[in-house]
Amino acid sequence: MAKAYDHLYKLLLIGDSGVGKTCLIIRFAEDNFTSTYISTIGAPPTGNG
Q1: Rounded CA gap, 35 and 15, in Å?
Q2: DSSP states of 2-13 as a string?
Q3: Helices (H), the chain
Q4: Four-residue CA torsion sign, 38, 34, 21, 13
Q5: What is the mean pLDDT of residues 16-39?
Q6: Mean pLDDT throughout 16-28?
Q7: Are 30 and 16 in contact (CB under 8 A)?
Q8: I need a labelling partner for 3 at 20 to 30 A (CA). Which of 26, 32, 37, 48 fits?
């Protein structure tokens, strides 16, 4: 079942490659931290908006 939220936010993170932008987004969006996260450098961009 999908989660229902009161607010919707769009966030733009800017920074050098390899500094942890994706890890930070996952940490707050999914309340999950993985210290052995696979790098997204060179990965195709994805998203829905």
Answers
A1: 19
A2: PPP-S-------
A3: 21-30
A4: positive
A5: 80
A6: 85
A7: no
A8: 37
